Structures are given as C-alpha cells and as structure tokens.
Amino acid sequence: MSVKVENLSVAYRMRAGDVCPVEGVSFTVADGEIMGLAGESGCGKSTLGNSLVFMEGRMRHLGGRVAVDGQELPIADFRAMRPYRMAKVSLVPQYAMNALNPTRRISRLTADLLRSHDVRESDVLEEMKRRIRLIGLGEDVLGKYSFELSGGMRQRVTVILSTLLNPSLLIADEVTSALDVSTQRAVGEMLMEFRDRGFVKSVIAITHDLSILAQIADSILVMYAGRLAEKASTADIIKAPLHPYTQMLLASLPEVGVRYDEATLTGIPGRPPSLVNPPAGCRFADRCPFARAQCGQAPPFEEVEPGRHVACWKVSQRWPEGGGRA
Amino acid sequence: MTALQIDQVSKAFRASTPGGGVTPALRKVSFDIGHGEVVTLIGESGSGKTTLGRIILRLTPPSSGRVVFEGNDISAFGHARLRDYYRQVQGVFQDPFSSYNPIYKADRVFEMIRGVYFPHLGEPAWQDKIESALAAVALNPGDVLGKYPHQLSGGQQQRLLIARALLLDVRLLVADEIISMLDASTRVDILNLLISLKRSGLAILFITHDLSLGNYVSDRTVILRHGAIVEMGDTVKVFGNPRHPYTRNLLTAVPELHRKWQPAAGAVTRPAGVAGAGEAPVPAPASDPPRLTEYEENHLVAEDAA
C-alpha cells in the first residue's frame, strides 16, 4: 500500500471551540491509483488533503497516522515535514494557479522553489523541459510571466512543478475547477499520463465534480460533513452507489442529453449540518429519506463488500428498500 | 412574441496601455429571445458571453449594433425609461456572496427596490408582495428574512436575488453563471426554478460554460467563440447533431458520468505549442465573423464549419 491513512482527525481552533472537519478518517491509496476525493463545500475534503502535506498554523492534529510507502509521516510537525514535501508528498493547493508570483518568470520561480528544497536546478531542468513538451506546451513558457499564460497553462505548470521530484503522492486540490471543458480535459489527462509514466505513484484528486472523477479516477472516496461516507471503485460509485447521500448526489447531476422535459432532476433538500456542535449520530440523517431511530448513533465506516466501504446503517444492516422515517 | 432582439451587436475593448491593441469581445452577434423561453448562451472564458449580458443590462454600451426590448431600442432610453426598463429586465450574477453587503441583513436588497420602485406602497401590500416572490422561488420567509448573508446558504442567496427580480414586473432575466458557485445538490433546484418561471412566461438568458447545465434547462442554444456565434438553434438539434467542429470538440470534452472521454473527432485536443487545448487563434479585430447558414429548420451553423 502506497498511502495509508489511519483514524486521522484534524481540527481548526476557533473561539467557539474546536471545529473538526476531518474526523476519524481511514483509507488507503494503492500504487498507481488515482483516488478521487469528492464532497460538497465545507465537507472537509480540502482540510484532509492539506493536512497530509501542509498542516498550517490554525490546524491541529488530534490523532491518527499517515504512512507513505511504509514510512510514517510526521504530519503534525511542520518543520519535520519539510524534507518530505515535494520529494515524497506534494500538494497543489486550491487556486494554486492564481498564486504564481506575477513579478517572476516561471524559470525564476522554479529555481527558487528548487533551491528551497536543496535541489540543484541543473539536475532537473532538462527533465522539466521534457515534461513541458510532453504535455503539449512550448519550452518558452519558462521565460514567461504567469500572467502571460492562460489559466489552463498555469494550472499545468503548477502540476509539473509539484511533481518534478517524482513524489509518491500528489494531492491535487480542485485542479480542474474554474477551467473550460477542453482545458479541464487536458489537465485531467495530464494527471493520468503522469501517473502512467511514473512521475507520481498515487494521486488524490480533490474535487466537487463527480463527472471529472468518472473520467480520471480509479476509485472515489465521498466525504460528508467531516466524515467518510463511501469508498469504492469509480465504476461502483457511479453505477451502483450504496450510501443514500452518494445516490442523491448523483441523481442531482444533469448530463448532456438530458432535458427538463424528459426527466426532472431533484436536488437534496436541506443543507449539511454545521461542524460547530454537529449532531451526534449520522450526519446525513436529517436529509436522508431512509433515516430511522438507529441513525441517532454514528454508523461505522466499514467494508460491506470486498473493496466497498460505507458508513450507513441502512447498507450495513440491509434494511429493506423504501423504509421511511421511524 | 419576441422579448429581446440582439441585432448585429459588436463590442471592442481598447487596451489602456499606449500601443495596446483592440480586443474584439463581440462580433456582430444576432439572436432573439421569446417570452416563456430559455436561451442558453454557451462559451468558454473570453468568448464574450458576460459582455453580452452586460450590454443587455445596459451596464456596458455596445460598440455597434442594437439591443431591442419589446420593440424599443434600449440605447435610446433616458433616465425615466431606463428605470422602467430595469423594472422589466433584471440580472443575477455568478457570485452570490459579492452581491450582498455583509454588514446589512440580506433582505436589504428588497428594501432597496422598494425605495426606488414602490415608495408609496403600504406595508401590508409590500409584505404580500415579498411573500409571493419568496413563494415563487420556494423559500420559507422565516428561513431568510432578517438574516445576514453569512447565515444563508449559497442556494438561498441566489434564490433571494431571483425573488428580488420577481418583486418587479420582470419579463426578462439575465442569469450569468448563477449556479456555478453552488453545490451540486442545490444546483438542480435553481435550474428547476428557472424552468417553472419560464413556464409562467418569463424570458431567460442563461449564460454558462457548462454544457450539461445548458442542455438541461434551455429551449434554444447559442454557442459563442471569440465573440462570434458558431452555431445556434434548437437545443435538441444543436446538442443532438452538432455541425460545427468547435461544438463537437466542446461536447467531446464534457466529462460525463457514464461515458469516458472519447478521442476528439477531427481536431487534436492538445496541439503542440499552442496556448490551451483546442484553442483557435484569436481573430483580427476588424475581421467579420463567418456567416451563419441554415443547416435545417431552427439550426444555424457558421460557414467556416466545412
């Protein structure tokens, strides 16, 4: 197992108390696997991704372990993580493409970045140029300023930079969002190609967009309100989701070719619970049409079939379909 | 009846730097929207779709061409006529969080309308109006009135802005990417709301870059590239039988749940050394857009399709 996360909990300190957007999270990502991490705004998916690489000051590690290639990462220790970043685990944070310094050419940015990781630029420059050509950009992007590049070009440059040292794990947070469909496709295909060529062993692709994950991911992990809801292969999640939340989320997505006069789609009524004093039991219960009294207790995230993990009493105890609220 | 007619509208932006060129944002765009019709305007970043929305709302003047609302050229409107125009034509934009002032309660957007359009309306009549507008967007008054913007979800905020438009005698709604910042589970509710408003006679221009959303909601579709229309017509025909290579390319790039990306037909997705995937060179400012010819009834395609 390339990446193993065990019982990880991360909190933000707030005046109102600790808010815990990642609570008791366990999963594994195999070598060569692109795992999609999906969920709606505020479900904790970005916090989870960031905490594996870059535990910033306001985040607090409450417990749990992360191992990559059998080696435990000191994720709670910001300084001790330093040698692992970029070399072992790499993060493309959300909006990274907008964070490229506009007063430095891409080549200069690269040099600064490499120096801060004690890597000689001459050792990797040729490889960087090769990868730039590989994804269909010209080497001249190195001599440009970030504002001279389109959004899609900037996004691809950030992915090249973060995978330059061939990390074992790349966490790509919303790298395809805010891009046009054709550019989205180019970035998505780039992630797959980099995985195929071994530039990166495993990828966690964080996004709210399930249809992108249907294209690029091998497996999908769905989060809801700070907890894991479901993990399975992409085909299983898309074709036969088990968790009621996954089912309702998929049913609310319009597809090309579906029009309102043919099929009326429905959203999920209500909204996710606040993570300040969240409800004790299943966090989806108050939006779930199948909820029963037992949902007042939190369901465990457990393997219900080989390779399929779900946190739902309805699934693990095989309630008959159509059971209403108790 | 035609609600809005867009007639040969062009817009060029001049760069503010000395020697800066002219960017053609729109090139002789013509189409119309009927009452009770949703027209989707689809385009990638920089295609000019938002500029067109702003021109219709008279937030930006066109360089040439006319926008005609129910028979009247909107550029001729003076102050009083313009106020009347905004009574009937309203816009809702992408980012609900920036449409509200976080210091004030969210329903202040209603009060601002009251000050301008209904200064003499009594309190009970005003409350009735608000109640029916909120009912039309399926909001419970108790959930949203008297709350601050941060206490509302993105979906509630967007609905509140649509309700604000409904307080007026709105006949045309310009909806510019109104759901792209919402979560998937609430997006479709806003789309269904637009459909029910359209059924009650509202004309809607739905501006988006998301083809599947546009396909779901609209009767007719206009596809814009570099400020010019490449294909337009009946939504079923444009999506079911796309004729222009650009439209086809867009459709093959759309991520779908149940079908993997197919190799792009004809065009290369990733041309070496070119800016972005599938990007065509930006046309010269002065060049005329390709002419549209009728492929079949209610389906026009630009002549450069070949």
Question: What's the short story on this structure?
Answer:
The complex is a heterodimer of chains A (326) and B (306). Chain A is α/β, with parallel strands linked by helices. Chain A has helices at 45-51, 106-116, 121-134, 151-162, 181-196, 210-216, 234-239, 244-251, 313-316; strands at 3-14, 17-29, 34-38, 59-68, 71-72, 89-92, 169-173, 202-207, 219-224, 227-233, 302-305, 308-310.
What does this molecule look like?
The complex is a heterodimer of chains A (326) and B (306). Chain A is α/β, with parallel strands linked by helices and 326 residues long. Chain A has nine helices and twelve strands. Helix content of chain A is 26%, strand content 24%. In chain A, the strands form two sheets. Chain A has an eight-stranded mixed sheet, with helices on both faces. Chain A has a four-stranded antiparallel sheet with strand order 2-1-4-5, covered by helices on one side. In chain A, helix 4 (151-162) runs parallel beside helix 5. The N and C termini of chain A lie far apart (41 Å). With 306 residues, chain B is an alpha/beta fold. Chain B has helices at 49-56, 79-88, 96-99, 108-117, 123-136, 141-144, 154-167, 184-199, 211-217, 235-240, 245-253; strands spanning 2-14, 22-34, 38-43, 64-69, 72-73, 89-92, 172-176, 203-208, 220-225, 228-234, 292-296, 299-302. In chain B, helix 5 (123-136) packs across helix 7. Chains A and B meet through helix 4, helix 5, helix 6 and helix 8 of A and helix 8, helix 9, helix 10 and helix 11 of B.
Q: What are the main properties of this structure?
A:
heterodimer; A: 326 residues; alpha/beta; Rossmann fold; 8-stranded mixed sheet; 4-stranded antiparallel sheet; B: 306 residues; globular
